Amino acid sequence: MSGGSVAFIAVGLFLAGGVISFVKQGVSKSVVAVLGIGAVLCIAAGLLRL
Q: Taking the complete model, does pTM exceed 0.90, yes or no?
């Protein structure tokens, strides 16, 4: 695994944790949706770079 793919996957998991935290805090759904889309895209980019 290259360093770039690991970095993308790590950032994606970090953003996914932020989504969970924001949902628990009751942040607006649009912010959570944008953060969730970013998390999915980062994880997908990391998996595609494998």
A: no
**Region at 27 (left for phi over 0; alpha for psi -120 to 50; beta for the rest):** beta
Distance CA 27, CA 21 (A): 9
Would the pLDDT of 48 be above 80? yes
Q: Where are the domains of the chain?
A: 3-49
Longest Cα–Cα distance of the chain, Å, equals 37
- CA 7, distance to chain mean position in Å, is 11
Nearest to 23 by CA among 13, 45, 15, 42: 15
